[in-house]
Amino acid sequence: MSWLGLNGKTAVITGAGGGIGQALARAFAGEGARVVLLDRDEERTGPLAAELGNGAFPLVCDLSKADDIAAAAEKVEAEGGADILVNNAGILRPGPLESVAEADWSAMLSVNLTGYLATSQAFGKGMIARGAGALVHVASIAGSQPQPASGAYSASKAAILMLSRQLAYEWGPKGIRSNTVSPGLVRTPLSEPFYRDETVKAKREAMVPLRRIASPEDMADVALFLASRRASYVSGQDIVVDGGLSQTLMGLVPRPGYA
């Protein structure tokens, strides 16, 4: 039996084709869970499902489309239902707030926030009926530390933190736990161009007290814990996984006698 108690559980992962999504899928499969891979691009999740085995399967799902989410939830419920939902999908349409287009703002909120609620409702229905389930939402330190020139990104991530807490409050009596993981700097295929620049990479590493940039696996390890029986009394919490970066603000304040 898995030490985490995930053997035989069904874990639905949104945005499963991305860097963190793939790490999540491999981590849950490695603990014996059957993984359902939701993504807009089946070309990325099809081969991953074949790699994982153990009944893993991909589903094409655009979180901005209610019909896609409903169809995915219906398919999973027909296969026995979800025990775990990891909300990981997200998009970024950068730009300063003074000129951000309403269409870009709305698109980000549609996926990054409304999509999280819609999937929680769709897959949570079966969890509520069975009286048990775990929700894990990938947020960001940008939800508590404003990220400039990023349009609705910080606002959407801040809202995810509150959505998770509200789900924990409302659904706790129904046997459902809800928590968030807030990554800091993570090296993924999406962020790889930044780290190809050795100067930028070195400056970013120097900002982090642990002196390294996170891997997607660092996020997956925390999500595993939050979804597992080892976190059976943890709900409504946010675990920041940033190597201590968000604790460095006061170190930027000049003081006499310090460089």
TrEMBL record:
<feature type="domain" description="Ketoreductase">
    <location>
        <begin position="9"/>
        <end position="174"/>
    </location>
</feature>
<protein>
    <submittedName>
        <fullName>NAD(P)-dependent dehydrogenase (Short-subunit alcohol dehydrogenase family)</fullName>
    </submittedName>
</protein>
<dbReference type="GO" id="GO:0016616">
    <property type="term" value="F:oxidoreductase activity, acting on the CH-OH group of donors, NAD or NADP as acceptor"/>
</dbReference>
<dbReference type="InterPro" id="IPR020904">
    <property type="entry name" value="Sc_DH/Rdtase_CS"/>
</dbReference>
<dbReference type="InterPro" id="IPR036291">
    <property type="entry name" value="NAD(P)-bd_dom_sf"/>
</dbReference>
<comment type="similarity">
    <text>Belongs to the short-chain dehydrogenases/reductases (SDR) family.</text>
</comment>
<dbReference type="Pfam" id="PF13561">
    <property type="entry name" value="adh_short_C2"/>
</dbReference>
<dbReference type="InterPro" id="IPR057326">
    <property type="entry name" value="KR_dom"/>
</dbReference>
<dbReference type="InterPro" id="IPR002347">
    <property type="entry name" value="SDR_fam"/>
</dbReference>
<dbReference type="GO" id="GO:0030497">
    <property type="term" value="P:fatty acid elongation"/>
</dbReference>
